[in-house]
Specification:
The chain has 709 residues and is of the alpha+beta class. It contains 26 helices and 22 strands. Helix 14 runs parallel beside helix 26. The longest helix has 36 residues. It is elongated, with a radius of gyration of 34 Å.
Length: 709
């Protein structure tokens, strides 16, 4: 099945060639001069992942290392250029002379070769033991130029390549510095997750507050969160009321009101009120830890397009070495320019063919896409999901908890002898003393309408029927419609008709009675999410067919489908049958499934794309490709839109990176030499770097897409 394939793919990642920018970061950890700032921003949880994946997620020091080496080599390059005979000829000047001046350029170039080129030499050694790539090309180019130039200095007839060697190393270091800085900048939004949790919590012990390390907290402990502080751990509010900003989790900047029995998660920022919470999850079980793990899995996963790019880069390396060798032989046999010209052409081919842009084309797009998704409350468990998502033609939604809130709400009120608000006031005043979920929905409706409840006296709960009591000196009952018949009370025809209407729609009903008759009927149903209508409309606009799947009765399914204008729905579908239904749907068209990730796990796995509703905090859903943290069906449309944009960027980058080499390699080989067009190794390096910059900028433009439009 798809799920097994994806896990197999992650386990088969090639540690030697997983996209050259990740490979370079792996090498940087072994450099002899680690950056003193290299440990800033590192976190233990990430390190453990890096050790098993081979990816250095906290390679923040890499741009600094390339930056430092670039500027040092640039300073050493200036005298090399100044003493270069070619530069003296071009700019018509005579360099100063002093004893041993002829050895100054070879010595400085040697330092540049070993110091500036060290990362490329080490990279080539690493690649030769696994799978050759761009490091091999760069190392081969600078090594050929260096050895030949030294040989010329020792007496071999010809012209040295010292200035070409120095500028080539400078440009390669500059390109890597820009590249690593781009990758780091794209990843930073995700890597800062670990900084969201404070290290100290205010624990309540025997009536007093003690500051203790968060790591020592256990489930059941009570901690105080003061106004303005970050929530240190997942818990349930037991006292207090406040607004909590959970933007890091949901992408929603608007604070969420938290009162007794509400859940708060580590990383949220408390507002103006003090909260006392009971710890419910610790360590790796916390929501933030789960998010970090999902992010790490996504960063470690490898898309099919990235695999394709890696294969293209590998073959491009082989082609470049072959073309460079052939170029050297042809120009040497032709005799034009001699040995120096032949080596110059071969080195230029090696440089211009470096699969820099090709290696960066896919990873940088995926890093940006993953970061964008996280900012919009969409967690990516597998980057390959972006490629599968762009072809989705049918999307199936589970009803309860996905298209609906999973909580009953008042849909309609029928009244006889009193008005609707009076009926709601009486029923809510009685139900406020009850814990029945249907009764609580009436209380919620009264609060939503800003109705001030009244005190109910002589309250009594009647098992299996409802509740009764006195409100404003009058005795009332609220309960099941069947209770009316048992009490032999009157049921006005208008209210009976209303009851039948609600039941025909598959809704539940509660009746309000005085001592003579029924005076109000409340129709209750699972509330449709406010954003569900917009989500389905947007999906229809982009040509995606919407299907609803539910275990509810036909009448309930039909009502919700008509409300949301869904043409195709399936009712009374058992959890174990959802997977087979998804299998039938995807046999017709590529199908995505959106569910809650608990009883929907088989269907999420079976679908071409599984999107799990996160329910706010339950993000550790192993069977899904994407997790919609806000439990908002509208995010499913955002995910598909981002997937299509991501695919387009990957395709554009692959086209540019490969197309550039189709033109660049022949020019580097000297095909246009008869027309006076010759590329030096340094110019080849500049063009290669420009292609890398183009690919990087194109990937960064992904962030300009507005998913909500």
């Amino acid at each position: 099945m798809k799920h097994d394939h994806r896990h197999h793919e992650q386990n088969q990642l090639d540690p030697g060639y997983v996209g050259h920018y990740e490979h370079e970061k792996q090498l940087e950890r072994n450099l002899p001069d680690p950056d003193p700032h290299g440990n800033q921003g590192g976190h233990g949880k990430h390190k453990s992942h890096d050790q098993h994946s081979g990816h250095d997620k906290h390679a923040g020091h890499s741009p600094d290392i390339f930056k430092r080496r670039f500027f040092i080599c640039l300073l050493l390059t200036l005298p090399v250029l100044y003493f270069s005979p070619m530069f003296q000829h071009w700019f018509n000047y005579q360099a100063i002379q002093f004893p041993g001046v002829n050895w100054l350029t070879p010595i400085l170039s040697t330092i540049i070769y070993f110091y500036g080129g060290w990362v490329f030499l080490r990279g080539a050694w690493y690649e030769l033991s696994s799978k050759i790539g761009m490091m091999t090309l760069v190392a081969l180019a600078i090594t050929v130029a260096y050895i030949y130039s030294v040989a010329v200095s020792l007496g071999l007839p010809g012209d040295s390549f010292y200035w070409e060697l120095a500028t080539l190393v400078d440009i390669m270091l500059l390109g890597h510095w820009i590249e690593m800085a781009s990758v780091q900048g794209a990843s930073r939004a995700l890597e800062h997750l670990a900084n969201l949790v404070p290290s100290v919590a205010h624990k309540q012990v025997n009536g007093r507050v003690e500051d203790v390390p968060v790591s020592t907290l256990t489930e059941g402990d009570r901690i105080l969160i003061r106004p303005g502080e970050q929530v240190p751990i997942d818990g349930e509010v037991v006292d207090g009321s406040s607004n909590v900003n959970e933007a890091f989790l949901t992408g929603e900047s608007r604070p969420v009101v938290k009162t007794t029995n509400d859940e708060v998660v580590a990383g949220g920022v408390n507002g103006e009120g003090a909260l006392t919470i009971k710890v419910t999850r610790t360590g790796d079980k916390t929501t933030l830890s789960q998010i970090m793990r999902l992010v790490e899995e996504a960063q470690a996963s490898k898309s099919q397009y990235q695999t394709l790019a890696d294969q293209l880069a590998y073959w491009l390396t082989l082609i470049a070495i072959g073309v460079a060798t052939l170029t050297f032989i042809v120009w040497l046999s032709v005799g034009t320019g001699g040995l120096t010209f032949a080596i110059n052409r071969a080195v230029t081919v090696l440089v211009i063919a470096c699969p820099h842009a090709l290696g960066l084309a896919i990873p940088l797009v995926l890093v940006n896409a993953t970061a964008m998704a996280a900012k919009n409350g969409i967690l990516v468990r597998n980057r390959e999901a972006f490629e599968r998502a762009r072809g989705i033609q049918t999307i199936a939604f589970d009803k309860t908890g996905t298209l609906t809130e999973g909580q009953f709400g008042v849909q309609r009120i029928y009244a006889d002898g009193i008005n609707e608000l009076q009926g709601l006031l009486i029923a809510a005043s009685l139900e406020s003393l009850s814990e029945h979920p249907l009764g609580q929905s009436i209380v919620t409706e009264a609060h939503n309408r800003n109705i001030q409840l009244q005190k109910a006296n002589d309250f009594k709960a009647v098992p299996g029927q409802g509740v009764e009591g006195i409100v404003n000196g009058q005795h009332y009952r609220v309960g099941r419609p069947e209770w009316v018949e048992e009490l032999k009370l009157q049921f006005p025809p208008t209210l009976q008709k209303g009851l039948q209407e609600r039941e025909s729609r598959g809704e539940s009903a509660i009746v309000l009675m005085d001592d003579q008759q029924v005076i109000a009927v409340f129709g209750l149903a699972d509330r449709v999410r406010a954003s569900a209508r917009e989500a389905i409309e947007k999906l229809r606009e982009i040509g995606v067919q919407v299907v609803m799947i539910t275990g509810d009765a036909e009448a309930v399914a039909k009502t919700v489908a008509e409300d949301l204008k869904i043409d195709h729905y399936y009712a009374r579908v058992l959890p174990q049958d959802k997977a087979s239904l998804i299998r039938r749907l995807k046999a017709q068209k590529p199908t995505a499934f959106v569910g809650d990730g608990i009883n929907d796990a088989p269907a999420l796995t079976e679908a071409d794309l599984g999107l799990a509703i996160g329910a706010g905090t339950n993000v550790a859903i192993e069977s899904a490709d994407l997790v919609l943290v806000k439990s908002d069906p509208l995010d499913a449309t955002y995910a598909l839109k981002l997937a299509k944009a991501t695919y387009n960027k990957m395709t554009q980058n692959l086209f540019w990176a490969t197309g550039y080499n189709v033109i660049g390699i022949p020019l580097a080989a000297g095909v246009a030499a008869p027309f006076g067009i010759l590329l030096s190794p340094a110019v080849g390096a500049i063009l290669m770097s420009v292609s890398t910059v183009v690919v990087s900028i194109n990937a960064m433009l992904l962030r300009r897409i507005r998913l909500s439009d």
